[in-house]
Amino acid sequence: MRCDSGTGTPGGAAAAALWHRDRDAVMAAGGERPAGRMSAEVTDSNPYSRLMALKRMGIVEDYERIRQFAVAVVGVGGVGSVAAEMLTRCGIGKLLLFDYDRVELANMNRLFFQPHQAGLSKVEAAKGTLRNINPDVEFEVHNYNITTLDNFQHFMDRIRGGGLIEGKAVDLVLSCVDNFEARMAINVACNELPQVWMESGVSENAVSGHIQLIIPGETACFACAPPLVVAANIDERTLKREGVCAASLPTTMAIVAGLLVQNVLKYLLGFGSVSYYLGYNAMQDFFPTMRLKPNPQCDDRSCCLQQEQYKKREAERPKTETVEDKEEEDMKHEDNDWGIELVSEISEEELKAASGSVPDLPQGITVAYTVPDQQTAPDNAEVVGDTGQSLEELMAAMKSL
Predict the structure, then answer these.
(1) Domain 52-302 sits in which CATH superfamily?
(2) Domain ranges across the chain
(3) What does the alpha-carbon distance between residue 29 and residue 8 come to, in Å, rounded to a whole number?
(4) Which DSSP helix (H) or strand (E) runs through 124?
(5) pLDDT tens per residue, range 329-339
(6) Which residues are catalytic?
(7) pLDDT tens digits, residue range 24-62?
């Protein structure tokens, strides 16, 4: 049986060669292109890129610039594998893939992996499939856990010097991991370098997700407004229940991956409005968007250092009137005949009683908790000494009250 060239199965390269030969022969004879095959309109030197329409519609001036970029994808699971495939089909110059898992039959609910790849490392399986899709892309794979000490250092080295030209940094890092420990490792690395990256995630109930652009010093990093499990310093492994796995829908994974790669293309090729944060709630088809400011009291020291450097750069930049400032001025109304007031769903008393600062959020989004300000206790404050009891002992003592 003849195998399709994009399946990653043996014989894919030969099928691709036959496909191109047949197409050229038919076109040379003046016939129509074979049904189901690549459009004959693609006449440039990179027939795999599907970005020509962006140039012809006047959206992108030079779509072939996509070949000049290198992107690192950390986590080749439900979101990462689909994101890598989309970037490959768009003709990205280089992809660096990081993951330590192997392909299992349970992964067949994804849009990417196939049963015959079971047992292979995800990065090697992905490399084989992607290379058959577009052999012009350069691939670099690393099958290890980035959170270990030795691997983390190598991970940083590849971000710093694994660009399209060896020795130069990658252009963007995509976080497609499924745990907070790996996200924090990526956050630490990108803050220290510094490196622009995009974070993505899908909820455990599989019906919502998000993407977020993180520019060290300019926007909030992952540690500036961390999930509660990170802020409370809880061991994530204690939250997992035996025999229970987070739900995974190929639809939600594909939607989040599409939003992520669309944001990548806008960022790299410079068109449209790049989303700093974009959420997705499948239950209401709700897409909240906002921009998170960095936390001056972030626990990551490198983030605070990047914030200071960003402030210095902004102070040295010549002052110009921005469009946002003009829009805010135009929205001011001295007359208010109808007595209309804009009020928050959270009362002023609740805001004052909050343990930390509450950011400005768009409609439909509320904070689940606030990070307490780091303040030193006054001299006359009572301080509870360390009893030496474990958390389990303290919880047992509370239940006995």
Answers:
(1) NAD(P)-binding Rossmann-like Domain (3.40.50.720)
(2) 1-34, 52-302
(3) 31
(4) helix 122-133
(5) 555 566 777 76
(6) 245
(7) 443 444 444 333 333 444 445 555 456 777 777 888 888
